[in-house]
Amino acid sequence: MEFKTTEIKERVLADNNEAAARTRERMRQSGTLLVNLMGSPGAGKTSVLLKLIERLGTQYRIGVMEADVDSDVDARTIAATGTRVIQIHTGGLCHMDADMVSRALASFGVEDLDLIFLENIGNLVCPAEFEIGADVRMMILSVPEGDDKPLKYPLMFSVSDVMLVNKIDTAPIFDFDFDAAVVRARSLNAQIVCVPVSAKSGRGFDEVVQFLRMRLDERRQMHENN
Amino acid sequence: MEFKTTEIKERVLADNNEAAARTRERMRQSGTLLVNLMGSPGAGKTSVLLKLIERLGTQYRIGVMEADVDSDVDARTIAATGTRVIQIHTGGLCHMDADMVSRALASFGVEDLDLIFLENIGNLVCPAEFEIGADVRMMILSVPEGDDKPLKYPLMFSVSDVMLVNKIDTAPIFDFDFDAAVVRARSLNAQIVCVPVSAKSGRGFDEVVQFLRMRLDERRQMHENN
């Protein structure tokens, strides 16, 4: 038995795309790379961020925007590393939209930063629908969530440039098949870069860091040529 | 640095509460218990459901409403047990609202059922905001998500009657402190029933089954007295 329900939201998304375009332009002008980090609650977004800050923080000027429904747990964790951080409270809302990001960026200041991470709300559904003007959409699928997730939350995998499969050391415990997850993700998005990582041990981060460095260099070069 | 953003949604929620009240009344009249099962992607909602069907299915007439953004993976899993199931596609929407549930129930039929589970969209944020008229709100927190989740997604813990802590056998691997999770959940909701479970091994299900039996008997008695 099947039952469908849909919602007209073209208007909301059109407004959103305009704000996203403004953010994209602002990033280009200041030579800053914006990464939208997404994933389920507990997938390991903050831990991955800490590892990336550790690996990239000496060479690049990094800022972090921490979106949370209500708390500031993650912002405090990031701030403890000495990284500039802004806490964004969505007031119960389940995702960041482009307008919120654009306003937060204005109050954060971007001119003196090379790389900004937005840690989005822990949610595998809504953040995928709202393009915020990021240069890189990086999603985390954690092993305990299961390798079938691309089948169930297809949009997130479709819109992401990178899929980090985190907690990869626990794959045997959860009968997680990395190759099967990749095949499922690629059937939605042939270009998606898939990297097995462990934010605990650091495994896989060479590849993630290399990917980001490449994008950062491109951005810097584009900025210098302007 | 902090930056707040809020959304006026009183109107939407008022409409929603009316529809929820209608569902609650329909359930009472048919002597059926409605359970809203919520949790993050991969927390184990479908596996918990399978265990509950196995334990309660011989004594009670069970129906399952499977809410999914797009797929029908879980509905097929449940249907394989011979349980009556309806697939609800939210068309990208991140939660079920009371009106969708009410319309789905009408097409599903409830009169000949004792117990209906709604498996909500995998999401720890939005489903908590939309009361759908359930008699029991049962949420699953899975161990790999971390014991800090009540701090970060407080509303879900505040509105739930039961918190199942699933994949409890992996607690040592993830340094998960069950007691700490319970203290955090209870600081938001003193009444919340907390049960450590493993949908894989069946651990903890005696207690969950006992809790549901009690609520089912109350509902049946209330129905017979009418």
What does this structure look like?
- 2 copies of one chain form a homodimer.
- Chain A has 226 residues and is α/β, with parallel strands linked by helices.
- The first copy, chain A, has one domain: 3-Layer(aba) Sandwich (Rossmann fold), CATH 3.40.50.
- Chain A contains 9 helices and 8 strands.
- Chain A has a 7-stranded parallel beta sheet, with helices on both faces.
- In chain A, α8 links the parallel β7 and β8.
- The longest helix of chain A is centred in the N-terminal third of the chain and has 21 residues.
- The radius of gyration of chain A is 17 Å and the shape is globular.
- The N and C termini of chain A lie far apart (58 Å).
- About 2% of the residues of chain A have low confidence.
- Chains A and B meet through β1, β4, α4 and α6 of A and β1, β4, α4 and α6 of B.
- β4 of chain A pairs parallel with β1 of chain B, so a sheet runs across the interface.
